[in-house]
Every structure is written in C-alpha cells, then in structure tokens.
Amino acid sequence: MNVLILTPSLTQHDAVSNEVVLQHKLLSAKGLGVSLYAEKVKSFSHGALCTRGKAVALLQDPACLVIYHHSTGWQEGEILLAQVQGKLVIRYHGITPAEFFPHEPATQREIQQGNEQTRRLAEHHRLQLVICNSHFIQQEWPSGGMGKYPVEVLAPFHSLEAFPSLAFQKIEDEIHVLFVGRFTPHKGQSNLLRLMIRYRERYGSLFHLHLVGKGSGKKTFLYALYQEIFANSLSAHVHIHYDVEAKILASLYQRSHFFISFSEHEGFGLPLLEAQYHGLAVLALYRGAVKEALGAAALGGETLDLDRFCAAIRILSTHQKMREEVVQAGHKNFEIYKMKRLQEKFLALLGVNDDNARQ
User: Fold this and answer.
1) H-helix or E-strand containing 35?
2) 17, 36 in Cβ contact below 8 A?
3) Could you tell me if 141 and 123 are in contact, meaning their C-beta atoms sit under 8 angstroms apart?
4) With a cut of 50, which residues of the chain have pLDDT below it?
5) H helices within 124-188, ranges in order?
6) Which CATH number is associated with domain 2-153?
7) CA 122 → CA 70, 73, 126, 150, 173, distances in Å?
8) Cα(31)–Cα(33) distance, rounded to whole angstroms?
9) In what order do the strands lie in the sheet with 87-92?
10) Of the N and C termini of the chain, which has fewer Cβ atoms inside 10 Å?
C-alpha cells in the first residue's frame, strides 16, 4: 500500500513539518511506500519529497492512503484533494482565530480561507477519518461531519525522547524561567514581562526570563518586545533566543527551573510537554488545550493573576521538595504522551498492520 502525505509547507523547526517527517518514518518502517508533497519547501530536504505530477498520480490510485495536514487555508491542497480516489484521512491541527492578528490583514485572510476550507473538507466524499490534536481542537471540527466518519483525538508526534542529552546543571542561586513559542502577541510574551515587573515590585529582585521562538513577517512584535524590555530596565534579565538549534533548546530546558505559558490560544502546546520531560515546574494560563495537555500536573489558573503566579514562583523556588513534587507529576503526565503510545494509536486509527502494509 502507498501513502501520500500532503501539507501546505515544509520547513525546519516547525511542529507540523516535524510530525510529517515522523509519520513518514513510522509508516516506512511498516513497509509502506510513503511520499511527501508540499507546495512550499523552505530550508528543508527529504528523500521522500515528490513532484506534483507524482502526487496527482498517487491521488488517483484507489489503493493509496492520503493523509492531509490541515492547519491553514491552502487552495492548491483543496484542488489536489478533489482528485482523491482512495481513502482520505485529515490530520487537523486547528486554526488560530483571526482575532489574535488584528494588525495582520494577510494573516486574517488566510485564517478565513482556512475556516471556509474546513467546512468544505468536512463534507469531502472520500473522507473516512479525522484525527485532531486535542479534544479542544476536536470541538472546532464542523458538527455536520460527526457520525459520517470518526473524529478522533491524538496528541502531536514529537521527538522529545530523542532530545540531545547534555550535562547542564541548574544554577540554584538564580531563578531561570523559560517560554517557547512564536513571537506573536497572542503567545503572551508581553505579559511575561509584566510578570517580571510585578515580581520585582513584590520581592525586590528579578528572575531570568528566556524567550525562545521564531517570528513572522517583518518581526514587528519582536521589535516592540525589545522596546518594552529596555523601557522597563529588564535587558540584563530577559534573554531572546531566536530560531535556535535542538542542542541550544535542550540546554535551555535543562538550565531552567520553570516553564511559564501565558499563551492565549494553544491547539495542544507541545512545549508544555517538552518542559515536563526536561524536569521543569510548569505554570500556565489555561487557554485552549493547555490544561488538557498538562493533565493532573496542571498548575496555574483560568485568569491572568500576576500576583498568584509571582507567589507560585516564590514558593516553589524556595521549597525544593515542593517543586520536585510538581516536577514528578509532570514526568508522570508525560508517560501518557510517549511516542510509542502515540504511534500505536496512530497505526490503529489508520488500520495499518503488518499484513496490509505488505500488500
């Protein structure tokens, strides 16, 4: 059996692209012939990348399984899906609401196109399965599709267990806080700066804040963030790490004590799991699928109460045993999302076993 994985774009350090590669690796290991097609390929190479002509040929093969990654509007993708003759599976990552991009009209148009496309995809005559990143994202799938085909939930594939193992030690006489996410307003970096200011007002000191991520467009938000850092005399304690490699990211996780997320929208929130895996105490604003991802180890709140978060940092940083309990709860939660479990469920949902893989 052949498999064609479709996605709008493939690029380095991108969660969807990473999952596409990991799906290819898993399905290839099962003996399937797996091809990848993306309209835009940037700083990315893979031996399974195919031409549009080959993609069309596979789409027209009734025996081909097509996996479509849907996270944005993709006109070319919908044109391709019109030619599907085999089984269609949609991997739905969710679409960030347009309200979070008030000054980006191009992004808003793309989001609108994506939402319109979601409604059409839900009625695709070849669609047999939808796999959503979280129960939160599952609720966004058009209800008209329910009952016609299964709409399942599976957390994103990840490479956490393959993270570089580095011998970095935490500096216990300092507090290091980490956040990983795109430099956009809805990810909450500005509110993390407000948290630092409030912490200084309450306790007369500052923790170190490490912000890791990539930007978009002209990086307007990132520039504004720098201005805010300088205006509030935070430059000695706020560290921007832009588009870093895996080893650097691993070192930041291993050196930090806390991971704090003030993100306003998360379809799952893979960095939350990364933090738990690396032994950080995670504090979070419960938005989107955040509480779902953190499970019983969730520690945070529904509202942005800066005083409450400041107190949590203070208490956990001065009570090592209490912080260790939070860390151990995070390790236990991560067990649910180990790759072996995710892979087994993915294969079961697709109906892939050793017998039909050889066909």
Assistant:
1) strand 33-42
2) no
3) no
4) none
5) 135-138
6) 3.40.50.11930
7) 11, 14, 10, 11, 54
8) 7
9) 33-42, 2-11, 65-70, 87-92, 127-132, 151-153
10) C
CA 154 – CA 26 distance, rounded (Å): 15
| CATH 3.40.50.11930 intervals, the chain | 2-153
Cβ atoms of residues 326 and 281 within 8 Å: yes
Question: What is the distance between the alpha carbons of residues 312 and 170, in angstroms, rounded to a whole number?
Answer: 19
Whose structure tokens read 């390929």? 41
CB burial readout 169-179, b (16+ within 10 A) else e: eeeeeebbbbb
The per-residue pLDDT for range 227-281, each reduced to its tens digit, is 999 999 999 999 999 988 888 998 999 999 999 999 999 999 999 999 999 999 9
What's the token pair of residue 210? 């490490």
Exposure string of 301-311, with b = 16+ CB inside 10 Å and e = fewer, is eeebebeebbe
- Residues spanned by CATH 3.40.50.2000 within the chain? 161-337
Residues 16-55: b if buried by 16+ CB within 10 A, e if exposed: bbbbbbbbbebbeebebebbbbbeebeebeeebbbeeeeb
What's the pLDDT score for residue 173? 79
pLDDT for res 216: 64
Q: How many residues does the chain have?
A: 359
Rounded-to-integer distance, Cα 142 and Cα 18, Å: 26
Architecture of domain 161-337 in this structure: 3-Layer(aba) Sandwich (3.40)
- Residue 83 is given by DSSP the state T
Q: What is the pLDDT of residue 103?
A: 80
Quote the CA–CA distance of 355 and 357 in Å, as a whole number: 5
Tokens of 69: 């990654």
Question: pTM for this one?
Answer: 0.92
Question: Are the C-beta atoms of residues 317 and 173 closer than 8 Å to each other?
Answer: no
Strands 281-285 and 258-261: parallel
- Contact at 8 Å (CB) between 252 and 241? yes
The per-residue pLDDT for 169 is 63
